Amino acid sequence: MALRTWPPLPEETIPSTLFSRGRSGRLILTKVVLLNGVGSSGKSSIAKALQNTVSKPFLHVEMDAFLAMMPERYHNHPEGLSFEQHIENGKASTIAKTGVIAERTLTGMRHSVAAMAKAGNNLIVDDVLFGNTDTGDAPTLAEYRKLLRPFDFFLVAVFAPLDVLEERERLRGDRVPGLARWQYERVHEQMPYDFEVHTENASPQQCAEQIKVSLGL
Questions:
Q1: Exposure of 20 by Cβ count < 10 A (0-12 exposed, 13-18 middle, 19+ buried)?
Q2: 3-state class of 33 per DSSP?
Q3: Residues 121, 17 contacting (CB under 8 angstroms)
Q4: Residue 10 carries which DSSP code?
Q5: Which CATH number fits the domain 17-71+102-175+190-215, given the four candidates 3.40.50.720, 3.40.50.620, 1.10.238.10, 3.40.50.300?
Q6: pTM: predicted TM-score of the whole model, two decimal places
Q7: In the chain, what are the domain boundaries?
Q8: Which letter does DSSP use for residue 179 in this model?
Q9: What is the mean pLDDT of residues 193-217?
Q10: Residue 5 pLDDT
Q11: Which helix (H) or strand (E) holds 94?
Q12: Residues sharing a CB contact under 8 Å with residue 184, sequence separation 6 or more, in sequence order
């Protein structure tokens, strides 16, 4: 499940802002942990728990916060973020479509993540990336890989069963009904994860502890 398919950068070519050194003098790269999962899977709660679990400071970067920067008129607008509902296996399934303004916003988010890491900030990124499907978002992961190559980059899956996701979606009340169903088969398809957590039986704190230990944070 290792993500690192590229060669590491030689130490002498890495700008000093991208790393610190421990007491032993060992080079410690800035770390970026990307949590990927369907909406309502628990990414934001895990990110907050992880911030409070690790000893070093990590900033939490949320996709929703960037989309909220768009003018309100571009929410449910073809040039911003729009939704199309249809019936899938007898249940509502809602397709999320990103127009040119939303795409620019999300591209800006990915470059902002790289800029913040370059400034020496450890990051937990809360995003929704699609896997290697015909309608997927695999180029987005490739862009993250390219932008974050100088850093210690980890991709973590946040899983939950569909019935759990749909119940959380219903209870939250701030999510478009049917979005979890549409994302469910598309988000994790053939993704090369470094680690995965399952939130149906584990609390955000337990997931954060698992991530901390597995990734050595």
A1: middle
A2: strand
A3: no
A4: P
A5: 3.40.50.300
A6: 0.84
A7: 17-71+102-175+190-215
A8: H
A9: 97
A10: 39
A11: strand 91-98
A12: 38, 162, 165
